[in-house]
Amino acid sequence: MKPSFARPLILSSLFICSLTLQAEDGWQHWFKEGLGDAKIVSGTATYKVENGVLVGTTTDGSPNSFLVMGPFKDFELEFEVNVDDALNSGVQVRSRLAKEGDPAPEGAKGGKPLPPGRLYGPQCEIAINGTAGDFYDEARRGTWWSILTGTEAVRTDAAKAAFKKGQWNLYRIVVKGDHYQSFVNGVPTADFKQPNDPEGHIGFQVHGIKKGDGPFSVRWRNVKFKETR
Fold first, then answer.
1. CATH code at 135?
2. Residue 55 covered by a domain
3. Are 206 and 43 in contact (CB under 8 A)?
4. Domain count within the chain
């Protein structure tokens, strides 16, 4: 074989090997260089990747916006997050996109259908007010899953104090079967079961703000995802 052909084959083999090594433990590393296949839904907030950090920024008068991936069933998700004090955020799991003609989601407040493209379902909260790590039923029941499932006991003083204002905070979210768990900086912050959302999207939220406020940003880094069985 001529050298001119050998080098591309060697480089190609090395590239394939590097992909295999990255996938050996099953973890995917999201947003290292760009947004990939993720898409923005529900609102008009902006998302970009800067030096490996996903940055979501409010736009004037926009409703809640989400950068979505999936759908997925069982998984583990880890990330670090830092949010501006004036903004709250969250990460949707097993959430669904409303479609034209869909009835109101089961349990929805007011019993009205959602506008097409609206993401709804369980959201792991990102906030500085003591609710971080709890799950909120976004755009549907409009309350906390710890209340809905009678698992408020996990919301200890340590859980409420786990999120550190103005710092990078480490989240771990585990969803398997009907079991949902979250940990903020290693502290258990949610642990409940509910069977109504067996599959859905992961969505990184930029919360809506009033006109004239902001702009505010939320930043995620070292986002790791692994499907489980």
1. 2.60.120.560
2. yes
3. yes
4. 1
CA distance 14 to 227: 26
CB 192 within 8 A of CB 135: yes
Structural domain includes residue 205:
yes
Which domain, by its residues, includes 216? 28-227
pLDDT in tens, 16-67: 333 333 455 899 999 999 999 999 999 999 999 999 999 999 999 999 999 9
Residue 226: how many CB atoms within 10 A of its CB?
14
Q: Which segments within the chain are labelled E, that is strand?
A: 28-30, 39-41, 46-50, 53-57, 65-72, 75-83, 89-97, 119-126, 135-138, 169-176, 179-184, 187-193, 200-206, 217-227
**pTM for the structure as a whole:** 0.89
Q: Is residue 2 part of a domain?
A: no
